[in-house]
Amino acid sequence: MGKGRPDKEEPQMRRLLQLATLSLVALLFFAPAAWSQGQEVTVRMEDNFFDQANITVEPGTTVTWVQSGNNPHTTTSYDGLWDSGMIEGGSGGTFSYTFEEPGRYDYFCIPHESMGMIGSVTVSDATATASPTATATAAASPTATALADTGGPPVSSLLIALVATLALAVYGVIALTLLRRHSTS
Ligand SMILES: [Cu+2]
Q: Which pTM value belongs to this model?
C-alpha cells in the first residue's frame, strides 16, 4: 500500500468516506424509529371469520383487510367510521383504514355478522417511541405479537431503504477508488 505518498485528493476521499460512514450509522440509528411510525397490519377475511379478529396496534397503523375467502365479505365499522362495501369472493380485494386515535374500534362483516364474523382493532395509547412500546403492547395483549410479522414496510421505510442503498453505493464507489489509488501507487 502506498502510504506516506503525498496526495492532495486522498484526504478529501477519506473525508467523504467518513461522511458516508456517519450517514450509514445515522440511518441504522434512526430507521427503527421511522419504521414504527406507519406500521401496517393485515387481517384476512376468511369464510366466514376474520383471521385476526382482535388486534392491538399503535396509533398511525394502517390495517388492510384482504379478501381470502370464496364468499363476499365486508369490513364495516359499528361506529360508521369505515365500510368497505361488498368485496367479491376470490377477488383478493383489499380495504385499508388508518387508525390514529387510541381506543377500541369494533367492526363486522355485513353478510356474516350473525355467524360471528366480527372483529376489533384496539389502538394503544402509545405516545413514547418505537421499540419500548412495542414490547409493552405485546405484553398487554397476546394478539399483538401478530403485529411483528404482518404487513409490508410503509412508504417511509422504503424511502429509508432507498437512501441506505444509495449511501452504500456511494460508500462502495469511494472505497473502490481509494483501493485503486493505493494499488496503482
Ligand atoms: Cu363475511
A: 0.54
